[in-house]
Amino acid sequence: MLTNLNGILREAYKNKHAIGSFNAYNFETFKGIIDAGIQTNTPIIVAFGAKYLENMSLESASAIVKSLAQDISIPVCLHLDHCSNMDTIFKAIKAGFGSVMYDGSALPFEKNLQNTKLVCQVAHACDVSVEAELGSLAAGEQSHEGSADDVEVFTDPDSAKEFVDETKVDALAVSIGTVHGLYKGKPNIRIDILKKINEQLSLPLVLHGGSGIPEEDILNCIANGISKINVNTEISTYTVEETTKLLGQKQPHLSVLALNQMDYVKEIVKKYISFFGR
Length: 278
Ligand code: 13P
Hints:
Blueprint lengths: L5 H9 L4 E5 L3 H14 L3 E6 L8 H12 L6 E8 L2 H10 L3 E4 L6 H17 L3 E6 L3 E2 L17 H11 L3 E4 L4 E2 L10 H10 L4 E3 L7 H9 L2 E6 L1 H17 L4 H24 L1
Parallel strand pairs: 1-2, 1-10, 2-3, 3-4, 4-5, 5-7, 6-8, 7-9, 9-10
Helix pairs in contact: 2-3, 2-10, 4-5, 5-6, 6-7, 9-10
This protein binds 1,3-dihydroxyacetonephosphate (13P).
1,3-dihydroxyacetonephosphate binds next to β3, β10 and α9.
């Protein structure tokens, strides 16, 4: 069953749960992620990053997810991840995405607010949910989302309140010490900042940089308003490692390799689902 982000996150936020948002870029990743949701009977957010448009068009991503989700009972949301280009946002809405992330975090506050507000007006008229970002994340090792020059700027709770009241976003990505990619040392997650943001807003909060966060931090984040946790890097690193092992033993037909890769994606996504669901 296809839904927008609100169809999944409102209930998760109310019940202090977090739902995984997993990045997909080819048929194997889409199928592995959705199968993990089906096998665990868990709602699932499939994120297609605007940076993967060379791998697949918005229309193809939408058609694949529609065909995989139409006859199943778990809610599935197709979400456009990290997009700073308004044209691409509007094309994703037209292509049938249930949710879009307008990422204006690199812009001055006022410009980010104005652009996000416009995106919300258009998206909401089409029953599409909107996630936005305030503050910015640094890049860890093997990051495929940011650049090495990204500097960490924590989200300011007072600005977050003004931003949400003005824009009417459905979910807000916060910067509280997580990084895109793998951690170089022990992460320093600022639960104190998250608590303040959550006290100011009654809104599902989003944690980017989900790969490799220690369980204790994850649980603390979920208890303080995080309802969506994004995972990309570890889906790739795990699948590539397993593929490398397999190719060290034999050279399967490409169709068989694809089936194995769907299983690797499914395994790692199920690991994160059980981790978030505890
Ligand atoms: P990781 O690559 O660190 O898992 O982060 C994913 C993410 O935040 C997607 O937006």
